Each structure stands twice: as structure tokens, then as C-alpha cells.
Automatic annotation (TrEMBL):
Alphabetical list of CDD domains matching this protein: PolY_Pol_IV_kappa
Protein name: DNA polymerase IV
Keyword DNA-binding part of the UniProt annotation: yes
Lineage: Bacteria, Pseudomonadati, Bacteroidota, Flavobacteriia, Flavobacteriales
Cellular compartments annotated: Cytoplasm
Role, per record: Poorly processive, error-prone DNA polymerase involved in untargeted mutagenesis. Copies undamaged DNA at stalled replication forks, which arise in vivo from mismatched or misaligned primer ends. These misaligned primers can be extended by PolIV. Exhibits no 3'-5' exonuclease (proofreading) activity. May be involved in translesional synthesis, in conjunction with the beta clamp from PolIII.
Naturally occurring in which organism (per UniProt): Leeuwenhoekiella marinoflava
SUPFAM superfamilies: DNA/RNA polymerases (SSF56672), Lesion bypass DNA polymerase (Y-family), little finger domain (SSF100879)
GO BP term, pick one: SOS response
Chief localisation class: cytoplasm
Gene that encodes it: dinB
Length: 367
């Protein structure tokens, strides 16, 4: 079993309804109204929802048609990622005033290790309060924060007093807090895992703690050790300021199901072009191309192909995706297509990038 390291002071900062809040900030007419970013069409997907919209049950990743039925007054706005990135950069500059140990998880959330901070402030709670106040002053947006001894608990804590609040779980409170916590609140326990835990009598952290390591590994495989440790307050992962991107992808949900391979290839070309643009902007390349297909009955299939060389051109990405598309007969009409490039050269940028098409490749299929 892992030994608990020297206690850290970790802050998890999470912006409140970030994309929607930015849209409300930039357009005063939207303030106080239910807003959904993206998902304007019946088949589109909501990227973010304002708190006014969430009261009606509107959530991110929800189909636009369902969101509209839940909230007939819902206002749909287009995404403006350049604007979100601009504000995210301003927020990160505030983080760096306190520590260089900043691990961004996305545009709207990050971990900070303030155990030894630039301000010499021994109180992580006061630092979190200062950071949230500076974010509000500089951007006009609200942020919430969780403060604790490790990343796992800090992330759970940041959700407790949302929006525009913070929660500190001190070292002496960690075990009682985890024992009383609903198992669904444990970060990393999704709907399927929660249902499986319910079936074996695990409803709270205390229930989880009664199970042996052997039992949890038998039921949940490698994740069993993770569950065994975290409920005891053991989570040794440090804040990683040089967090490495592992994959890059894009996908499209169609307004109408498509069954023609010609139409599918047109959509895949657009997706490949978007990935190429993002790869070049990030100056990375990858070896593994994964094609994602969601059928009209919501069945999801993925097919992957790993090359022996790095690529980033639209032509080679599209050619590989096309080969994967033809690998299996279509089972139904298609509502979503996506392409992801993984095995990136982020760890060794010196690896050669090539677009040669005649090199023999290794196939790997995932269903």
C-alpha cells in the first residue's frame, strides 16, 4: 500500500459556467437569462449552460433539442473559443503570481500547489480567496475553489459551494469527510461504476472503506487500488506544471442522420482539416488515428490504426480515417463522426514527422 507523502496545500480553481458566463459578460442582454453555448440545432450538443439554464435541467453534453424542450426560453449562442482562451490566459497569469506549480486541466479549471508560494502566505484558504477576488476584478467572472491536502479531495471540494464559493477540507477533516461522502461524489466514479458499487452495498465512502484491497481489485481491476487509497486520503499525484497532452481530436454531430459514405467522407475531410490546423498550431504530431462512429441508435464504435511514423497532415489523417471507415460495413445510419490523433510526440519533439503513404502500418481495432 502507498504511504501518504508530506501533506501538500492544493487548490483546485474552477470557473463557474465559464463559456456561458463569458457570453453573458460580453452581452449584457443575456445576463440573468437561461443561456446555452452551442447546441442551437435539434441535433447539436450543448457545450455549456448558464446557472439560469441549469435550473431547468439543461447540462453540457446534452442534445440541443432536449435542452430546448426542458427550457423553451433557452437562448442559444455560438461558441467563441478565441475569447475563452483570451480570458483563460488572464486567469492563469493570476495563478502564476502565487506559484509556478500550476496544472491546467482545461480552459476553465486548474490545480495549484501553494505549499511553498511566492507570497509567503501559510493559508491556502486565504490564497484561494485572494485569487477568486482577483479573477473577479480582472475578468468580471466568478470562480469557485476547493482546498485540501491533495488533488483528489480539492477537486471534490471545489464543487461543494458552487457557484462563487470555496470549501476547505483540512488534514484533520479528510477522513470524516470522505467517509460521509456519497460514492457518486468521488471524482472518477461515473454512473456505471456507481451502479456497480450500489449492487455490492457501497453507497458512501465509509462503505467503500470496509472493503479489502483484494475485494476491490477483484471487482474493479486496476481501479480497485485507486478506490482503496483515495477513501483513506491517499492520493500522491503531484501538481504537474508541464502536463502533457496525450491526444487531439474533433467530432461532428449531424442535423440529420447520414447513410451515404460519400457524405461521410466529406464530413471526415472537414474534421481532418480542423485537426491539422490544431496540430500545426500546437506544433505536435501523432501516430494513432481513431475513427469514432455513433449510429442513429446511439451505438458507439471506434476503430484505431497505429502508424510507425508521426503525421499531422490532413491528407494522411483523412486517408487513414477512410481506411478505417471502409474496414467494417455500416450497421445503420450515422449521427456523429469523429477523429482523434493520439500517441503524440509531446514527449520527444525531435521525432521525425512524415507524410509518406507507402510505409507499412500496424493495424489495431477496438470495438
Amino acid at each position: 500500500m502507498e504511504e501518504e507523502p508530506k501533506s501538500r496545500k492544493i487548490i483546485h480553481v474552477d470557473m463557474d459556467a465559464f463559456y456561458a458566463s463569458v457570453e453573458q459578460l460580453d452581452n449584457p442582454e443575456l445576463r440573468g437569462k437561461p443561456v446555452a453555448v452551442g447546441g442551437g440545432s435539434e441535433r447539436g450538443v450543448v457545450s455549456a449552460a448558464s446557472y439560469e439554464a441549469r435550473k431547468y435541467g439543461v447540462r453540457s453534453a446534452m442534445a440541443g433539442g432536449l435542452a430546448r424542450r426542458l427550457c423553451p426560453e433557452l437562448i442559444f449562442v455560438k461558441t467563441h473559443f478565441d475569447r475563452y482562451r483570451e480570458i483563460s490566459a488572464q486567469i492563469r497569469q493570476i495563478f502564476y503570481e502565487y506559484t509556478d506549480l500550476v496544472e491546467p486541466l482545461s480552459l476553465d479549471e486548474a490545480y495549484l500547489d501553494v505549499s511553498d508560494n511566492k507570497k509567503g502566505n501559510p493559508s491556502a484558504s486565504l490564497i484561494a480567496k485572494e485569487i477568486r477576488a482577483k479573477i473577479k476584478e480582472k475578468t468580471g467572472l466568478n470562480a469557485s475553489a476547493g482546498i485540501s491536502v491533495n488533488k483528489f479531495i480539492a477537486k471534490i471540494a471545489s464543487d461543494i459551494n458552487k457557484p462563487n464559493g470555496q470549501k476547505t477540507i483540512g488534514p484533520e477533516d479528510v477522513i470524516p469527510f470522505l467517509e460521509a461522502l456519497d460514492i457518486r461524489k468521488f471524482y472518477g466514479v461515473g454512473k456505471v461504476t456507481a451502479e456497480k458499487m450500489y449492487q455490492i452495498g457501497i453507497f458512501t465512502g465509509n462503505d467503500l472503506k470496509t472493503k479489502s484491497l483484494e475485494f476491490l481489485e477483484e471487482k474493479f481491476g486496476k481501479s480497485g487500488k485507486h478506490y482503496y487509497n483515495v477513501v483513506r486520503g491517499i492520493h500522491n499525484s503531484p501538481v504537474k506544471p508541464d502536463r502533457i497532452r496525450k491526444s487531439l481530436g474533433a467530432e461532428r454531430t449531424f442535423n440529420e442522420n447520414i447513410s451515404s459514405e460519400v457524405f461521410m467522407l466529406e464530413r471526415l475531410e472537414n474534421i481532418a482539416e480542423e485537426i491539422e490546423r490544431r496540430l500545426k498550431k500546437s506544433n505536435v504530431a501523432g501516430k494513432t488515428v481513431t475513427l469514432k462512429i455513433k449510429y442513429s441508435d446511439f451505438t458507439l464504435k471506434t476503430r484505431s490504426k497505429t502508424l510507425s511514423y508521426y503525421i499531422r497532415s490532413k491528407e494522411v489523417i483523412l486517408e487513414t480515417a477512410k481506411e478505417l471507415l471502409y474496414q467494417e460495413k455500416m450497421e445503420n445510419s450515422v449521427r456523429l463522426l469523429g477523429i482523434t490523433l493520439a500517441n503524440l510526440n509531446t514527449e520527444d519533439k525531435k521525432e521525425r514527422v512524415t507524410d509518406k503513404k507507402e510505409i507499412v502500418v500496424q493495424l489495431k481495432f477496438e470495438f
